[in-house]
Design brief:
about 400 residues, alpha+beta, f41 fragment of flagellin, N-terminal domain, 2 domains, three-stranded mixed β-sheet, 7 helices, about 50% helix
Length: about 400
């Protein structure tokens, strides 16, 4: 019999330590709900489950991205719903104005409402925003990231829905032939527009390289730019067709906006010089006809029976354009609804797979804990018995 090395106690102690370690791990798993709490629990399983976790979080965020996309689309579509209402009212006014039971005075009153409706269409297009991004002015090209990985996105473009884009705006200024001398131009506020004009009386050139007319609303000034067919400024002179061409230039420019217009028409030559028009130099001797520019019509013209009749067709085309845009938005929204359903299903299935790797089976682990607890108690009892075994030596010593 030996007392310095109690092999039985040492063996029992080893078993007790193992049982305590297993019981501690079971407690950790039961308290966390995870089968893998550290890489040492399952190195491969940890790597796989972490990759799955990244995918799951990406899919869940993609669902939120798609939902935000739907909110953006609903914002744009809601604004276009109001644009549709305005266009239908404009069409109603055009049909009313096309009836000759109305006098010119009646049509002028109809035109006033038409102008305001046109302004409102543009205001809606310029001010409809989502998260400070303008939706309806033609600038929006949005990518919705609807997947967990790189490049998994879809692109939405919304066309310009301004009155100008829909062709239901009016000319800011309208040029007309009148009797008398000189050029008469009336601004939007009814005041006379200042004329800046070059001294052409001293020259004798009869053709121009380029012409343009620009209106500055801040200074209330129209600047006329004429060209020449040589680099010598002194050759710039009277142009017999200037007045009628200027009328055309202003009309074309006015159709492009209701505030500032500028347009150029090239004819011949390569040189051109900007000229400033002065009222003192503006005499009937320089012109073959007279021109007047009336106050603006901001909405599509319905001031005559013919114009109103033509406006009906233009407004119908605008309604069709808005309908097409709303239809596209609706289809895009439906697509996003299906995307959300797919992403949600994918995320759920991936979460289930990740759970099988990472999460603990509570019932099974409770069985393990109970077993380890019993082994721990048994090992403790057996260790006490093993520690008593060397006392048998005392009998030999007695």
């Amino acid at each position: 019999m030996r007392i310095n090395n109690n092999i039985s106690a040492m063996n029992t102690y080893s078993r007790l330590t193992s049982a305590q370690g297993a019981q501690s791990k079971s407690l950790e798993k039961l308290s966390s709900g995870l089968r893998i709490n550290r890489a040492g629990d399952d190195a491969a399983g940890l790597a796989i489950s972490e990759k799955m976790r990244g995918q799951i979080k990406g899919l869940n965020q993609s669902v939120r991205n798609a939902q935000d996309g739907i909110s953006l689309i609903q914002t744009a579509e809601g604004a276009l719903n109001e644009t549709h209402s305005i266009l239908n009212r404009m069409r109603e006014l055009a049909v009313q104005s096309a009836n000759d039971t109305n006098t010119n005075s009646d049509r002028n009153e109809i035109q006033k409402e038409m102008d305001q409706l046109s302004i409102e269409i543009t205001r809606i297009a310029d001010n409809t925003e989502f998260n400070t991004q303008n939706l309806l002015n033609g600038d929006l090209t949005a990518k919705f990231h609807i997947g967990a990985n790189k490049g998994q996105n879809m692109t939405l473009q919304i066309g310009s829905m301004t009155s100008e884009s829909l062709s239901v705006n009016g000319k800011a200024y309208e040029a007309q032939d009148v009797t008398g001398t000189g050029l008469s131009i009336t601004s939007r506020d009814g005041k006379a527009v200042k004329i800046a004009y070059a001294n052409l009386a001293a020259a004798a050139v009869t053709d121009a390289v380029e012409e343009s007319a620009t209106y500055d609303k801040d200074t209330n000034t129209i600047t006329v730019t004429l060209g020449q067919n040589s680099s010598d400024a002194s050759t710039v002179g009277t142009i017999n067709t200037t007045n009628s061409r200027l009328k055309s230039l202003i009309e074309d420019a006015a159709s492009k906006g209701d505030e500032v217009f500028s347009v150029s028409v090239k004819t011949a030559g390569t040189e051109n010089t900007a000229l400033t028009v002065k009222p003192a130099d503006f005499t009937s001797a320089l012109w073959t006809e007279d021109v007047s520019i009336s106050a603006p019509k901001l909405g599509i013209n319905v001031s005559t029976q013919g114009a109103a009749d033509e406006a009906i067709k233009v407004i119908d085309n605008a309604i069709t354009s808005v309908s097409a845009e709303r239809s596209k938005l609706g289809a895009f929204q439906n697509r996003l609804d299906h995307t959300i359903n797919n992403l949600t299903t994918t995320s759920e299935n991936l979460a289930a797979a990740e759970s099988r790797i990472r999460d603990v089976d509570m019932a099974k682990e409770m069985m393990e804990f109970t077993k380890n607890n019993i082994l721990n108690q048994a090992s403790t009892a057996m260790l006490a018995q093993a520690n008593q075994m060397p006392q048998g030596v005392l009998q030999l010593l007695g």
